[in-house]
Every structure is written in C-alpha cells, then in structure tokens.
Amino acid sequence: MSSTITKPVAEVRVGRVKAAIWPNQTESGAVRHNVTFARIYKDANGEWKSTSSFGRDDLLVVAKVADLAHTKIFEVANGHGADPDGEPQS
To answer: Are 39 and 27 in contact (CB under 8 A)?
Structure first.
C-alpha cells in the first residue's frame, strides 16, 4: 500500500510565525490553496516545537504573514497559468 505525502507549495515566515500554502484539487480538477499557520518556539529542553496558538503580541505578525501568504498564492497560481481559485486566465 502506498501513501502520498502532500507538501506545501510554498511557505512564508516572519520571525517565529509561519504559513504553509497547500494545494487542494477540486472535483473539477482546479487547484485551490489553503493556508495553515504555526508559531515555532523552543521548549524547556531547548527543542523546537510548533503550535497553532498565538498570543496577543503575535497577532499583528500573523496578519503580516497572512498578507504575505495571500501574495504568494497569486505568485504560485500565476506561475501555473491559473488564478488563485484555479480558474484559467485569459
């Protein structure tokens, strides 16, 4: 049995906040993109961990990362000849 591991098509990061951009193929064959956000940190043992929980001081950084991810989706889509909603460009 084989399994397919999907990787993000792009990532953006500001400081310890990052966004991963994931391709999702629709039933019609179009590709749409979803984004996941994470904050990375070191635990008490000095090992890197990640969480999807953000504190007050992270929120403006999350907003900036979301803006960058939005721009990156357009860049990725334009490189493939489609808009971010998977519709062909004229």
So the answer is: no
